[in-house]
Amino acid sequence: MKFISVWQNLSVAAATVLMSLSVGTAAQAFTFTNPTTGNQYFLTTARSSWTEAQAEAMAAGGNLVTINDAEEQKWLLDVFGGTELFWLGLTDEQMEGVWKWSNGDNVTYTNWTPNEPNNALSYAGQYFGGENYVVMNWQSNGKWNDVANTFVKSRGIVEIVKNYIDKIPNIFEQKNERACQ
């Protein structure tokens, strides 16, 4: 009896670990939990366009990051650094000048580089047709800039909200209980 109980607990723990590793891609090898929100964050696997990074984030059960305040901005900067450009979940693709987060949230905080957003149609002779997506660390640590979808190939910061994370172990516990009966 004791052996079965231990095995069940190990199975649930192993399933939870496997789920943590398989909810997305190898990029999750380095997953960080924000102590204030409980949300988890990691980088997309490859440098890509905004739409590709957002698709990878959604496949992992999240979205590109939503930054709600200066404290969260500082935490992200401390964790991921201020030199590499990272895609954020901010876009005005639906209506020019009306910025929304990819998870549907309204914007409550911004950290734009001076004179941004500017919706530049071209840069250095290349026409992009406007700038509808946002990168962090433009010209200085943590500052944001609007850019075209394919202007830069960057990794995105993926955010998986705590409410979603909390449901994952329950799925495995329910399946494990049924399998052991």
Structural features:
181 residues, alpha+beta, Mannose-Binding Protein A, Chain A, 19% strand, globular, C-type_lectin/snaclec_domain, Lectin C-type domain protein
Write the layout of secondary structure elements.
Elements lengths: L1 H21 L9 E2 L6 E4 L6 H10 L3 E2 L5 H11 L5 E6 L8 E2 L20 E2 L2 E2 L5 E4 L7 E4 L7 E6 L1 H19 L1
Parallel strand pairs: 4-10
Antiparallel strand pairs: 1-2, 2-10, 3-10, 4-5, 4-8, 6-7, 8-9
Helix pairs in contact: 1-4
Could you please describe the fold and organization of this structure?
Pfam families: Lectin_C. It is a single chain. By secondary structure, the protein is an alpha+beta fold. The protein has four helices and ten strands, in the order αββαβαβββββββα. It has helices at 2-22, 50-59, 70-80, 162-180; strands at residues 32-33, 40-43, 63-64, 86-91, 100-101, 122-123, 126-127, 133-136, 144-147, 155-160. Strands 1, 2, 3, 4, 5, 8, 9 and 10 form an eight-stranded mixed beta sheet that branches. Strands 6-7 form a two-stranded antiparallel ribbon. The radius of gyration is 19 Å and the shape is globular. It starts with a helix and ends with a helix.
